[in-house]
Amino acid sequence: MRAFLTGLIFGFICFCGESQVDAADPAAAGTRYRKPDLRALKADTLAAQRFHAPPRPKRLRRPPSWAPSRALARMAQLEDGGADDLGGLDNDDLLDEGESAGRDPPAAGNGNGYGNGNGNGDEELEEPLSVEELIAPPTLGVDSHDWQGPTTLDVSPSVLPGLPPSSFHSHGTGQETPYCPGCAACQGSPAESVPSIAVSSCGGCATCQASGGCRQPCLGKYWFRADYLHWWGSGLGLPPLVTTSPDNTPADEAGELELPNTRILFGGNENHLDDARSGARIRLGMRLGPCSSYGVEGEYFGLEDETDRFFASSGADGSPILARPIFNLVPLVGLPGEDTRLISFAPDISGSIGIELSSEFHSGGIRLRMNVGGSHCGGSCLSCSSSGGSCCGARKSKQWCFDFLAGYRYVELNERIGIEERLVSPIDQFDIRERFEGRNEFHGLELGCLYELRCCRLSMEFLSKVAVGNSRQTVIIDGTTVQTAGGITETFPGGLLAQRTNIGAYTYDELAFVPELGLTVGYQITKFLSANFGYSMVYWSNVARPGQFIDRDVNPNLIPPEVVPVTSPLRPEFTPNRTDFWAHGINFGLEYRI
Q1: pLDDT tens, 313-349?
Q2: Cis peptide leading into 105, omega within 30 of 0?
Q3: 289: which strand partners?
Q4: Torsions phi, psi of 393, nearest 5?
Q5: Cα-to-chain-centroid distance, residue 237
Q6: pLDDT, tens digit, for every residue of 47-94?
Q7: Which residues fall within 8 angstroms of residue 454, CB to CB, at 6 or more apart?
Q8: By the 8 A CB rule, do 347 and 387 touch?
Q9: 296-321 burial: b if 16+ Cβ within 10 Å, else e
Q10: Distance separating alpha carbons of residues 205 and 214, to the nearest angstrom
């Protein structure tokens, strides 16, 4: 009995001594309570995200389920307390967390704070960990159903001191979020001193922009577009200029309008100069700075000169009948009314007449583009995909932008009517030339907007703008008559519809509007090159067109050579007549944008 009591007392003393030693120095108690180092805690951080990050070349074994939640809780505690030492997480806390979760604590012996749940502690990471891997944002991956903690981590500089401060942006919210430098490839923005992270890890361009990326307008850094135009213009209206009648028609009725046998050979409608015309449009510009929302753009387009010609002549016998209709204000017999000036009439007069119409239309301007809204990707989805992203596969694959336009617009429209006539009689010959020309120049301020929508390789652009300014209109009327009789040639001012009463140059200014609409659909061929097809329309509210200034009211006594003295009225005369002009059509071409 005495021996039994002695052994019991001795065992109690040994047990108490061991407990005091453990309490005084837990590290001396053995490897069971070994304190984890900094690398182990960083490994725990990776373990919290490894099930949500993109697949690695070498797959890591899944760490114990106690590690993520405990590590996250400790990291949140450090952030709230302002601590910068990661060594404060002791193994007592880790053990308690593992036991409370009903799982095995980490095994001793490997020094990294990892265990396999069975106390062996023989599972280790296969390769060193990088800072980029630690801050990679979570995405759904394998075995994610085991994760019960938060889906994102706070990776501010206080938690991960290895990153430079330039890698974070607060966005004015007081919370720092990581900058996604992988989008620099599709934004064209520099990423010095920032770790290179794949765009796919940022969730596409839209996510990168939300994470502090440089806001890039859709227009790119430089752009150049060349389009082929296939347009139609509004027709030029003309009064009846040449008529004919059957050969047996009396001379006082030959070619006279409003008679059943009279046929109009040229004029009398608005179907002149309305055929399809080819043209070209060039647009180029640049952005004002690497991250600027402002850009400067210049544009020029023009249509090829269109001409319309008419020619008619008679034989030497004066057949067929050709005539120029007029409204005679001073007839020899009767009241004023429809009459003609004969070009050919058998058997006394033979002759010919030629008429040429021409038109040219072009425009140019320079403007400022200011981006006022949109989901900025800084280029096409193709460029983002080529740099490692997956814009086309992202949920927000549609990118759009809205630009405000302001600048200067110049438009020019020149049209001309030329008439050449020859009359041959037994005693003399007359060569008559007349010209009616309208020149229009517009200078004004242009305002508008441009909306662009992109989805993968497809894009759509809607353009709407209007220019307001001065339309300077110049009308030129000229005519000459050359008479040859008995070998003597004389030249007189005036012809038939252009006489001394209306010959001259007339200039006046008017307020005008020039709106333009355009719809273009594009397809991205390569990273920088796209093909475009669209429709455009331009309208000019106030122009002078030469057909409007031809006055058919004629005083025959003014026809050269004049009958002296001339009795009134002095007609034809110039009367300002204004009309409008429009052009529209399809266009297709290529655009190079970087």
Answers
A1: 999 999 999 999 999 999 988 899 999 999 999 988 9
A2: no
A3: none
A4: -95, -5
A5: 36
A6: 655 545 555 554 445 444 444 445 555 555 555 554 444 444 444 444
A7: 218, 377, 380, 381, 398, 399, 400
A8: no
A9: ebebebbbeebebebebebeeebebb
A10: 11
Asked if residue 309 lies in contact with residue 356, where contact means CB atoms within 8 angstroms, the answer is yes
In angstroms, the CA 173 to CA 171 distance is 5
- CA–CA separation, 494 and 220 (whole Å): 59
Domains of the chain by residue range: 1-25, 222-593
Short-list 49, 236, 222, CA closest to 130: 49
d(CA 162, CA 576): 79
- Give first-to-last CA distance, the chain, whole Å: 98
Task: Please check whether residue 364 is in contact with residue 433, taking contact to mean a CB–CB distance below 8 angstroms.
Answer: no
Strand 553-554 with 337-344, pairing: unpaired
Q: Which two tokens stand for residue 102?
A: 């009903």
**CA pair distance 232, 475, nearest whole angstrom:** 24
Nearest CA-CA partner of 424 in 530, 313, 529, 512: 313
Between CA 275 and CA 279, with CA 277 as vertex, the angle to 5 degrees is: 170
Rounded Cα distance between 505 and 543, Å, is: 16
**pTM for the complete prediction?**
0.64
pLDDT, tens only, 252-292? 999 999 999 999 999 998 889 999 999 999 999 999 987 78
Distance of alpha carbon 46 from the chain centroid: 44
Write the single-letter amino acid at 10: F
For the chain, how big is the Rg over CA atoms in Å? 45
| Burial per residue of 389-423, b for 16 or more beta-carbon CB atoms within 10 angstroms, e otherwise | bbbeebeebbbbbbbbbebebbbbbbbbbbbbbbb
Separation between Cα atoms, residue 362 and residue 371, nearest integer Å: 28
Q: Measure CA 204 to chain center.
A: 22
Angle between helices 66-81 and 91-100 (to 10 degrees): 130
Paired with 132 in beta bridges are none
Q: Where are the beta strands (DSSP E) in 269-349?
A: 276-287, 294-313, 322-328, 337-344
Helix (H), strand (E) at residue 361: strand 350-374
Cβ atoms of 65 and 48 within 8 Å: the answer is no
State pLDDT tens for residues 524-551: 999 999 999 999 999 999 999 999 999 9
Pairing assessment for the beta strands 504-524 and 488-493 based on DSSP bridges: unpaired
